[in-house]
Amino acid sequence: MSETISGTAEAVPATTSPMSRLAHQVGFDLLIFRRNPAATFFTIVLPLIFLVLFTSIFGNETISGDVKLATFYVPGVLALAIISATAVNLAISMTARRERGMLKRLRGTPIPQWVFVVSQGLAGFIISVVMTVLIVVMGRLLFGVSVQMSGLPSLVVTLLVGSTAFVAIGLALTTIITSEDAAPAVTNAVMLPLYFISDVFIVGDQTPSWVQTVGNLFPVRHLSLALRQSFDPFVEGTPFPWDHWLVIGGWGAVSAIITLRWFRWTHRR
Fold first, then answer.
1. Distance between CA atoms of 24 and 14, rounded to whole angstroms?
2. Cβ–Cβ under 8 Å, residues 1 and 30
3. pLDDT: is 104 or 4 the higher one?
4. Could you give the C-alpha distances from 86 to 1, 18, 64, 166, 252, in angstroms and in order?
5. Contact 187, 93 (CB under 8 A)
6. How far, in Å, are 46, 85, 92 from residue 41 at the CA level?
7. Which of the listed residues 98, 184, 189, 194 has the most CB atoms within 10 Å of its CB?
8. Which among 124, 120, 118, 116 is positioned nearest to 82, based on CA atoms?
9. Rounded to two decimals, what is the model's pTM?
């Protein structure tokens, strides 16, 4: 089984149902991710490093009762992990597959195109869920992060909406990336500034108001804020950040339209 063949899983019988093909492809995409050292580091290891760095640099004082400051670092770190698992990973990997001719060969295989595209989203969602568990468990055991059971429904919806939207954003980014070599540079040039103005690295009340205003225009900040409501111990009842979900979903819908219109299955050369 090799990604250099077509970017899809090994051939399955022609009589296999679409759902079985989808499950098979998702497993293959997860295997590719696990065997990619760069993707594994930036998606899994780097967010955990950031969590340790934040608590080391900014401290982990007790705010009220048993609420630790690290509780408010987790949403930003988690947003970083979700975006890395979806938009960043897809923008780079799909551009590489396109420029190497893998996507072109894919169209000649029995695998339906929708199965391949949907599997990318499902793989990103699964990785996001795994990262959520890792970050929360690590934060709880090492830094006393407060976990709100009342925020669990909101967290699940945010993961679903966020991962779906950023999968679409990652695919849309491939339409402006001209080569495999340019993919990491373009993706990081887009995402890194957004991290700094979107409550990922710096909490909002520590940034100027105009920075927050600019950040509100983009989905990264809304993902971080929606996640924060799920972890905020001072929010009463079950939080449902509809305003943030709508902005994230709107960006995902626009990105999906861009992808449907301009996504390329063949290289640009």
1. 13
2. no
3. 104
4. 23, 23, 35, 6, 12
5. no
6. 6, 11, 14
7. 98
8. 124
9. 0.88
Q: Read out DSSP for 30-64?
A: HHHHHT-HHHHIIIIIHHHHHHHHHHHHH---EEE
C-alpha span between 28 and 41 (Å, rounded)? 19
The amino acid occupying position 202 is I
Nearest by Cα to 197 from 84, 76, 78? 76
Q: How far apart are CA 216 and CA 235, in angstroms?
A: 21
- The mean predicted confidence, pLDDT, of the chain is 87
Question: Kindly report the CA angle at 199 between 123 and 201, in degrees rounded to 5?
Answer: 85
Instruction: Residue 248: name the closest of 55, 82, 3, 85 by CA.
Output: 82
φ/ψ region of 69 (left if φ > 0, alpha if ψ in -120 to 50, else beta) reads: alpha
Q: Largest alpha-carbon pair distance within the chain? A: 61
Tens of pLDDT, residues 137-165: 999 998 888 888 888 999 999 999 999 99
What is the C-alpha to C-alpha distance for residues 203 and 159, in angstroms, rounded to an integer?
A: 20
* Cα–Cα dist 2/28, whole Å: 9
Cα separation, 121 vs 252, whole angstroms: 12
**pLDDT reading at 121 higher than 70:** yes
Rg of the chain over Cα atoms, rounded to whole angstroms, equals 19
CB contact burial 162-180 (16+ within 10 A = b; e otherwise):
bbbbbbbbbbbbbeebeeb
CA distances from 228 to 146, 173, 268 (A): 12, 26, 41
State the Cα–Cα distance between residues 216 and 211, nearest whole angstrom: 9
The tokens of 129 are what? 């869920």
